[in-house]
Write a structure and sequence with these properties.
Helices cover 20% and strands 29% of the residues. The protein has 108 residues and is α+β, with helices and mostly antiparallel strands. It has a domain at 12-63. The strands form two sheets. Strands 1-3-2 form a three-stranded antiparallel β-sheet, with helices on one face. A hairpin with a 5-residue loop joins strand 2 (39-47) and strand 3. It is elongated, with a radius of gyration of 24 Å.
Length: 108
């Protein structure tokens, strides 16, 4: 029996804040940003850096760029057993993991 471990990367996000003096101006800007994939997370009404009352909207969207160029050049790891392990009928030895049972466990 061959086991395959599925590893999923955590979703990465981009963030943006929008500051507008009126709720109508904020709504117009949010509609425009929404067309570019931005999602409103939260909005507050309070003083801005100049001390004037303003609406601040906080937006997010899935990141389109990898976190760094170094990680993008790294090969993607797969959890497929080697050909030698398949021929022998035993799971491949993985440092730190016990792959022999029905459940994966960390080795002590």
């Amino acid at each position: 029996m061959t086991k395959t471990a599925i590893i999923q990367a955590q979703q990465r996000w981009e963030y943006l804040n929008v500051v507008k003096r009126t709720d109508a101006a904020l709504a117009a800007e949010l509609n425009e940003q929404g067309q570019s994939g931005w999602e409103l997370v939260s909005v507050i009404y309070g003083k801005d850096r100049k001390g004037e009352l303003a609406w601040t909207g906080f937006l997010k969207r899935p990141a389109t760029q990898p976190p760094s160029a170094a990680s993008a050049s790294q090969p993607v790891a797969t959890a497929q057993p080697s050909q030698e392990a398949e021929k022998a009928g035993t799971p491949e030895s993985s440092e730190g993991f016990d792959l022999s049972g029905d459940e994966f466990e960390l080795k002590e």
